[in-house]
Task: structure prediction
Amino acid sequence: MDFLLLPLFSFLVGIVVGLTGIGGASLITPMLIFVFQVPPAIAVSSDVVAATLMKVVGSIKHWQQQTLDREVVKWLALGSVPGSLLGVGILHLIKLKAEHNLNNIMLHLLGVTILLVTVFALMQMLVLTFFPKVQLPELPKFDLTTGVGRLQTLTVGAFLGCVVGLTSVASGSMFALALITFFRLDTRKLVGTDISQAAILLIFTAIGHLTLGTVDWNLVLPIWLGSVPGVLLGAKVCQIAPQKPLRFMVYFILMMVSLKLVY
Result:
């Protein structure tokens, strides 16, 4: 039954990722923990490996559709890849010093990260939707034609990459927030850029998690079976689907999931 349910749920998550660029690890990892009773450390590592193929397939689709910004992808990835490897290195240290507490630490890291990501994203979306005339203080837009803009992008990428390496979360949601805040990308290019840089980031993060020895291929393969066709379908429909209602629904689900993980 689990072998049938896991691909089905992964297919639905894949559609959400293809449509919005967010929600992959934030939904699949808690699903593995709560629905399939997988230990948190194994759930996080297996999801990183599984999400890699899903994001790579989605990025190829968006590349073909020209719904991405290649320069933003390049400079974010140059920061996020070493950042993610640092995060995996921290997990190696935790495993070495306190292996018996690894699952407990991972569970709370995961919950707090999803909660923070969701709260910031939801607040921004609600203010822009219901109070469009409110003048929010704008952070500076990163100009990738200058050295300062590239350095800023590398720094943001490195920080968020470290979070992804630690928890598997935020390869979509936090980077989407950064793209909105610092690059002002339109919705269609936002999704494609988000998924494409996440694909590059997760390739290296997955290699790091494989060295931890906490990847379960019995979970990875069914997730691939469902998520890959799901993300292809979602990426295709992305061009015509309304983004705001979809994102609000995803953020609401993530809020409930994160509170469950934390408490």
User: Anything to note?
Assistant: The chain has a mean pLDDT of 83. DSSP finds ten helices and no strands in the chain. The radius of gyration is 17 Å. Residues 26 and 200 are 18 Å apart (CA to CA).
